[in-house]
Amino acid sequence: MISRPFSKLPHEADGANGMLEPWLEGKGLGDADQVLAYFAVSKLGEPPVDGKTDTNPEGLTAAYGKWASAVAGRLHAGGLSCKVLDKEAFQKQMLEKLIWISAFMLVGARHPGATVGAVEKEYRSEVSSLIAELASAAAAEKGLVFEDAMEDRLCAYSRAVAHFPTAVKEFNWRNGWFYSLSEKAVAQGKPDPCPLHTAWLRELKVI
Domain residues for 85? Predict the structure, then answer.
């Protein structure tokens, strides 16, 4: 997941990618230990592929909370990278991954058959515009400032997992969080903070 608590999730998302904060807070688990997993196993028995990219050769996986160091130690023992972050730094990275999956999957869905790599290579202008829009909305909602060069980091990760297919799935846990920001703003008589995102969701009849 974007942000994965160590306890059982309420759903069976692909890799548990998604926004869990509202669910965790609703269960009184706002400070639950979490892991932002950037590694994958292609099939049973295969070695895991670490989420290292040309912009982040140290790896992108991160952990937060009381047991973060213990989790990082176990991952390191298995040959995988893992950083231990404080809550704010973890939240920024969690939101970046949410932006990645929401942007790349939506743009890819507009171009049937497009992989994550194809989105990064062939539809870069579309995904760049969407990343900027979603990042601005997330920053305003959470009152934080993202590190520079987010687009470069997200595109680098896409090159590392270029073969992944694209599709808009697990809406409530992924794109749905951004759409909820749009709904809230419109209900308050304010401009939609994610107009491109909303338009493309409508184009694909997701909403």
Answer: 4-203
